[in-house]
# Entry
Amino acid sequence: MQQDLRSVEAHQSMNLTIVRIGIITVSDRASRGEYEDRGGPAIRDYLTEVLSCPWEPVACVIADELELITDTIKKLADNDGCSLIITTGGTGPARRDVTPEATEAACDKMLPGFGELMRKVSLEKVPTAILSRQTAGVRGSTLVLNLPGQPRAIRECLDAVFPAIPYCVDLIEGPRLTTDEQRIRAYRPPGAKP
Amino acid sequence: MQQDLRSVEAHQSMNLTIVRIGIITVSDRASRGEYEDRGGPAIRDYLTEVLSCPWEPVACVIADELELITDTIKKLADNDGCSLIITTGGTGPARRDVTPEATEAACDKMLPGFGELMRKVSLEKVPTAILSRQTAGVRGSTLVLNLPGQPRAIRECLDAVFPAIPYCVDLIEGPRLTTDEQRIRAYRPPGAKP
Amino acid sequence: MQQDLRSVEAHQSMNLTIVRIGIITVSDRASRGEYEDRGGPAIRDYLTEVLSCPWEPVACVIADELELITDTIKKLADNDGCSLIITTGGTGPARRDVTPEATEAACDKMLPGFGELMRKVSLEKVPTAILSRQTAGVRGSTLVLNLPGQPRAIRECLDAVFPAIPYCVDLIEGPRLTTDEQRIRAYRPPGAKP
# Structure
């Protein structure tokens, strides 16, 4: 981690900002190696396809433990300098699904509009979309976003909310994210400082 | 109550699962007998029409008292073995409307997607649908769902959310609910364990 | 304030009810005079255009300070007799945006349907509508509503939710609000007491 941070500092001193993005796969089975993590790679592929600014992932796979998820979000935000943290998994109604609670515990403020929109777009596909409790929030200058576990649902949700993410990161004083406009058009209001 | 539980155990020992569903009418006036309870019977009629598995109602009519509502939800879930508890009434903005707060106090986790969808479908009928604060949550292996008080609104809301209820009850390790597919098609994702 | 209250009492003793509506502009810059308050006047203009009952505004411009916003909402509700309090500004994800938290701290119960509908209508215009955390709640007999800061968004949001506001104020035992039906049709369910 120290080395990672130094490497970021080195890039910054060369006037290159490399945006760090945390990708947390929350899954008991994947964390024990009983199951291949498909959610984390799906998020990484999506970001590679969509982002046009330099970025690097900080990925991890952890169990569905409330405190562990909260601590991992805090560490990625505070120690690893992630400007955006995306979780996958643990958002359903089952006993072990605690990602939204862990996210709320790590965040200063919540953004209910993300969950509302993601459920709305998923609901066009499956009626069980209402079972998803996924949300988003802000910790300091870091945006934290929950996604479901299924790769197909991950893409649907990201397509829906990504246009608002770069401006959100601007507003919380994070780095400037840019996107491939052929793929996702990041919206910034007219008059927003460039 | 003891007798009811023994009766369920007897059925289970014969390999017959009878799903128990709590129906709580929350209304000061109905609880004092000043007003006929129309919400509770509307829910019962709906379930009779839609469910194809054996089930039995555990119904009660109580006043709009926060602690009483919370305790009744807990009792129906923990002592009476209800897998699904549906409330009617007490979800508006008035001073005595406290059903959502009582539900949250009884639940381990909340499912905001239910309230969002029910308000959305009610909003197609009346602009005052946004005044409803109805929600859903999970206590242990029991799904708790708030509905409004009016029989017409009860049916609209149940039609909207019922397709997701059987799979939700699966996920929280409750019994397998089945529906009359001509009436409501319960959705379970491909690959969900039967 | 004492004088204001006496004036309301005088009107009431003449059998004239003048509805008082609090308008709180939440903005660090406007409160320091560095920026013209445009949100507060936009709300006032809207209400003048839409309400057909006698009403008077109680307006103020305050900084984005959690405790100050909460205290101002409480004062307008409890001391100044406002039946409706509308805030503008401070609903985004930025560090200084704390109006929703301040509103929740001042309210007895929350009405999530307002925020959901306002985000939905704003989302038809801009994808960043999901960043707004605006909500509504009830303190005693007072409805508290958050609006965004931009005058255009203020009108869009009020057009969406205003049809439900007069009946909401009825339900919380506030005064009877009436609207110019050419402009906004206030909905009261058939059978609601006049």
